[in-house]
Amino acid sequence: MNVPWTELVREGELKTTDELDAIFFGRGVSYDKPIIVSCGSGVTAAVVLLALATLDVTNVKLYDGAWSEWGARGRFTG
């Protein structure tokens, strides 16, 4: 599922915990399953990680290599 970091902030700050929870719930994120956050370079995914940490979700990992590392492997999927 996709939760863009831009949906989690307002005027440079994280939205309220109630708003964050509603956003993640609305996107089908299950807090009781492992969560991996990623983006193009690993930087903006840190905002998603912070939002989840604010909600006390602890089973989150940041794939800091992100799409740039994955794409550089030269392997195809599908």
UniProtKB/TrEMBL annotation:
An annotated Gene Ontology molecular function: thiosulfate-cyanide sulfurtransferase activity
GO cellular component: cytosol
EC code(s) of this entry: 2.8.1.2
Species lineage: Bacteria, Pseudomonadati, Pseudomonadota, Gammaproteobacteria, Enterobacterales
Transmembrane domains' residue ranges: 35-55
The keyword Repeat is assigned to this record: yes
Pfam families according to UniProt: Rhodanese
Domain Rhodanese, chain residue ranges per copy: 2-75
Protein name: 3-mercaptopyruvate sulfurtransferase
Source species of the chain: Escherichia coli
Alphabetized UniProt keyword annotations: Membrane, Pyruvate, Repeat, Transferase, Transmembrane, Transmembrane helix
